[in-house]
Amino acid sequence: MRLLFVANWKMNPGSVREAVVLWNATKKYARKMRKTSVVVCPPTPFIAPCATKSEGLVFLGAQDVSIFPNGAHTGEVSGNMLKDMHVRYVIVGHSERRALGETNEIVSRKAQATLVAGLTPIVCVGERERGEHGEHLELIETQVKESLRGVSKAKVLKVIIAYEPLWAIGKTSAHAMSPADIHETTLFIRKILSKMYGRTVGMSVPILYGGSVENSNIFAIVHDGAVQGVLVGHASLVAKNVSDMLTALEKAQ
Ligand code: 13P
Fold first, then answer.
1. Best of 10, 172, 241 to mutate for ligand 1, by most ligand atoms within 8 A of CB?
2. pLDDT, tens digit (0-9, with 9 covering 90-100), for 117-140
3. Catalytic center residues
4. pTM
5. CA–CA separation, 132 vs 144, rounded Å?
6. By Cβ atoms counted within 10 A, which residue in 32, 51, 74, 133 is the most buried?
7. Which ligand 1 atom lies nearest to the CA of residue 168?
8. What lines the ligand 1 site, CB under 6 Å?
9. Residues 145-162, buried b or exposed e (16+ Cβ, 10 A)?
């Protein structure tokens, strides 16, 4: 399987001009990759200026989606609208959206809405802090189970899980989770998925890591953390970093 590099621009950059420059640079680097697929998730207003039919293995993603297919829902954007703008992936249940009140139930409805539109949901889970007695594992288990409620065994093969421990987000590589801990936690997530959907499916769903992934730690995270890719925030906003991180990913496979 190809590794996945997902750039989550969050509410950046500040202008459409900068967004298009960054998108074009990212596309240029991504096209040189042989073993890595790239997904860029701009803020919603910048999707249209970046939207061209996906080229090669560079895709557009969205940072959120409505639970509704259409209708009187002010401020909402449907999966079909995103699809029409050549979006292929949708981040759902990011911790920054959960912090605004998004529950596991809403996340599961968003994951389903994404699948119904024929797009790939990247379902985010992750603990706020690690408990000494493994309390965080219970929380992750509940998040995985409830966020995927209603997603059938056939459909879950189209889902990507992103494990993003909140305490590691938005810092520097020194604060990221260690590759060994990432590996251990993803194995735990695979165990939950296996209980829900059977071992074959549980072992097949791609799991990404996110949280202070930078040039200096991306290789070890993918190589030793045994994840199928990364979800990158701040480091994905600098074109040179994107180039260096993609080169490291190619070497890690
Ligand atoms: P940072 O890479 O800035 O820590 O952000 C991680 C993240 O939240 C990606 O979705």
1. 10
2. 999 999 999 999 998 888 999 999
3. 94, 164
4. 0.97
5. 21
6. 51
7. 4
8. 8, 94, 164, 169-170, 210-213, 231-235
9. eebbeebeeeebeebbbb
